[in-house]
Structures are given as structure tokens and as C-alpha cells.
Amino acid sequence: MTLATPSKRAAPDGMADPPPLRDTLTRLGLTADKRFGQHFLLDLNICRKIARIAGPLEDQVVIEVGPGPGGLTRALLEAGAQVIAVEKDARFAPALDDLATNFPNRLTALTTDALKLNETAMLRDYAGGIGARVVSNLPYNVGTALLLKWLLGPWRPEAMTLMFQKEVALRIVAPAGGSDYGRLSVIAQTLCETRLVMELPARAFTPPPKVASAVVNLRLRNERPDDRLVAALETVTGAAFGQRRKMLRSALKQLGGEQLCRVAGVDANARAETVPVPGFMALARAWLEQSA
Ligand code: SAM
After folding, report:
1. Which end of the chain offers a freer environment for a tag, N or C, measured as fewer CB atoms within 10 Å?
2. pTM of the predicted protein model
3. pLDDT in tens, 40-52
4. Ligand 1 centroid vs 66 CA: distance in angstroms?
């Protein structure tokens, strides 16, 4: 969705560009706090690349979770987005306020926990109630929880460009047949087209995390299964991947085992890891019919 307000891609005439991110951290005496999963992207070229991958963003409403000192935020603003930045750590508020001054009427910075956020109310209050996409370098410790919230919760973004630890990114896009393929892959791929679009080594971040990172693009499919079928998919994948080494006839025993597989047309001797997404949709449909 777009906003009607005119775009301003750079700082207005006479206003200096925002200072380098390292200077901002030094000036405010900010160091990374592990509790908040803080690993900063201080290289603006990388931030701009992520904004390009997420684009075109001109006049798009973008929710950014965890702006920290504001590197990606700045790249999103430069790309012409209207940004609502949601940061749990209040120490970053002054840096974000400065950035808001450089991009008048383009940035709303809120100090709150994104896990508890009511996105619909926030968009109503700050963006006239229209849809939005999410672009974020997510905190590792809550990245999967946030993705599931946006996939399964009452508010759904139009599109997402999200940085995760690489292992999680690989699980989101994994095809059937490998050890990365699991419940997250099935749910994400049922609801979205998913694509791994960028990988970053740990050294790209300050401080460097222990693992590499990757960016995933997720675009919601036009045809969404109804909520009861999605809930059934959560149940079936939970049981199947909860015991992923077992054959489906055993792993799905509580849900109907062999009979369920027969109705769904899925091999009861297969293991969850080898069943492609349409197979899980068939199992979910069969379970829904059976429990109606
Ligand atoms: N976007 C910045 C960057 O790329 O340099 C920071 C990314 S850092 C990986 C994750 C950010 O998310 C931190 O600023 C952290 O404080 C924030 N954060 C952690 N948990 C959060 C939550 N539940 N809600 C909102 N922000 C959160």
C-alpha cells in the first residue's frame, strides 16, 4: 500500500546528512546488549542493498522491527519509504529521533516489544490504517517467533524482507528431502513464496555473532487457505516433525495414522522430511474432514 504524502528521499536542503553510525554509537555511549540480540549493521552499503532487495519502496509503508542505531532505517528512508520503527531498547530513541529530523514526516519511532505489538492498531494510528510490508534485521532470539506471528496472526504483512541467522533462513526456504526441511518450511511455503536473497558473514556485524546470517524474501500468496485449514496444517506438521525419524503411520498415530495417510493419498511409510508441501496440505485437509 502507498501513502499519499510526497516522498523526500534525502535530507532537505540546508540540513546535514545523518552522521556515520559508529559516531552515533560513540556519541550516545551505546554498546550492544546481548539480551536484545544486538548485532549491528554499520555498513550503509549493505543496508542499502537490503533496502534495494526489498524494493521498490517509494511511498511504501514499512514496519522495521529492531532499528537499533538506525542503519537499515536510514537506507529504507533514502529509498523513499514511510517507516514505522519498533525498538524494544529505549537507549536508541535519541538516535532515531535525530534520524526523524533528517527525514521529516517519514519516520515514526516507537519504543515497544514487537512480540506484543498490535500492528493493526499501530498502522491505524500512524499510517491511516493501510497495509504495510516488514523489512528488518531481526534479533536472533525472537526471529522465528516474529515470523510465525506475521504468518499466522491476525495482521499479515504484504511482503517481508527479513534477516535471520542463516540456519533459520535455510529452514524457511528448504525443499522436502533434507534435514533443513521442517514445520517452519511447510508453513512458510504454504502461505508465501519464499526466496533466500542474500547471505552475510558474521564479520559484517558489530559485534559479530557466532553464526552467519541470511536475508529471506517472503511474499504472501494470493490464495490463502482458510484459517481452519492452516490450523490443521499446524497440528499435522507439529505431530509429523515432532517425531521426524518415525514413519508417518507412527508419528501421526494420534491423528489417525495409516487411515489418515490413506485418505490423504500420502505414503504412511514415509518420514515427514520427505513429504512435500502439497502432501502436508492433503494430510491437513483429511484431518479437518475427519475431525469435523
Ligand atoms: N537493525 C539494526 C541493525 O541492523 O544494525 C539492529 C539489528 S539487531 C540484530 C536487533 C534489534 O532488535 C536490536 O536493536 C534489539 O534491541 C531489537 N529488539 C530485540 N528484541 C526486540 C523486540 N522484542 N521488539 C523490538 N525490538 C527488539
Report:
1. C
2. 0.93
3. 999 999 999 999 9
4. 3
